[in-house]
Amino acid sequence: MIRVANAPVSYGAFELTVGVLPNVPGPDEVLDAIAAAGYEGTELGPRGYLGRDNELRDRLEGRGLALAGAFVALHFGDGDLRELEATLDLLEGFDTKPILCDTGPRDGDVDLDGVLRAVERTRARGFEPTLHHHMGTRVQSPAEIERLLEATDIGLLLDTGHLTAGGGDPIRGLRDWRERIDHVHVKDVRLDLLRIATDWDEAWRRGVFCELGSGDVELEAFLAELGDYSGWVVVEQDWVPQPDDSLDEVMAAQVRNREWLRRHGGC
């Protein structure tokens, strides 16, 4: 069974904005918008943003939302698992999936032993992790994803936007890695904006991730190919708030994304 979620990043709340930019919406505003748009769940966003312990649980349960996953950025190989441990502490009692991601930069191959240590520690705490390939990290291209899958047994989060931006084909990725895929991020991406950006951060701020169906990802074909996939499909449209941006329009975009999935993806 497919369940559809959104994430705070779609509303401008993520690790590069919370506590940094002045016009990032608060957690209650974001969760109200996610629930009102018809999503079943949300990912965690920055640790602590949605609250902790009973505050987190009450916020979610009060809106009928499940916790779909929790992003954890790690520099695999440096031995520092404090961010992982802190996130796992927060997730105690939740049936959710820690989403492990390399922090980059792209200065060589990811340390596979470091990935294995993080996976081992996550499982020892009673959670099953998944790996998020991501632009700007050491697990970005299809070849880098293949290398990691061959050397570990961790599940894979397939992100349609990041895979397309990294030179891959989400449909081929789904076919090749189906047995390892246990979480899906549905993103659309404008490759024209990516091409003119000087680096990934600039592309992010230019709005390289766009509304579903308005970019270069073959999303309808991808969703048709999902077949008997069972798990979360998380809509993400990363947004970096600019001074004159309208939160109302951002919220409206997530309503349109939810409707697009119903019409074109049947979910």
In summary, what is this structure?
By secondary structure, the protein is an alpha/beta fold. The protein has helices at residues 27-36, 53-61, 82-91, 112-124, 142-151, 160-165, 170-177, 191-196, 200-206, 219-225, 247-265, and strands spanning 2-6, 41-43, 66-74, 98-102, 130-132, 155-159, 181-186, 188-189, 209-210, 231-235.
Protein described:
This protein has 267 residues and is α/β, with parallel strands linked by helices. It has a single domain (2-265), classed as TIM Barrel (Alpha-Beta Barrel), CATH 3.20.20. 39% of the residues lie in helices and 17% in strands. It contains eleven helices and ten strands. It has helices at 27-36, 53-61, 82-91, 112-124, 142-151, 160-165, 170-177, 191-196, 200-206, 219-225, 247-265, and strands at residues 2-6, 41-43, 66-74, 98-102, 130-132, 155-159, 181-186, 188-189, 209-210, 231-235. The strands form two sheets. An eight-stranded parallel barrel has the order 1-2-3-4-5-6-7-10, surrounded by four helices. Strand 3 (66-74), helix 3 and strand 4 (98-102) form a beta-alpha-beta unit. It is globular and about 45 Å long. The mean pLDDT is 96.
